[in-house]
Amino acid sequence: VQLQASGGGLVQPGGSLRLSCTASGNGNYYVIGWFRQVPGKEREGVSCITLRDGGIDYGDSVKGRFTVSRDESKSTVYLQMHSLEPEDTGVYYCAAESAWTLSCALASAEYDYWGQGTLVTVSS
To answer: For position 52, what pLDDT does the model report?
Structure first.
């Protein structure tokens, strides 16, 4: 499974961005997760979605501001980000989990495939 994350960029505080994660290739996957990382800090789980039934979870720092969704026809998962803060700055990665599960988790160790990341910078 190959993952392509896109949509990052520079945005002012309070602004919005939508990230996309498109999957291709062979292999089964059941969950897509979004993670972010800032140099010197641990990778943080942002959101995840189960592709079978749309189960969703969010990290505490983004609840109420970020929304994850999927378009199965396009093999794409979106992360809509609103009310962005400087603390949201980082490289955002999408990842896929190949093990079937009833619910998704925000632990990076659960994921088997990773995209290359897209940089989000929130700054005035």
So the answer is: 84
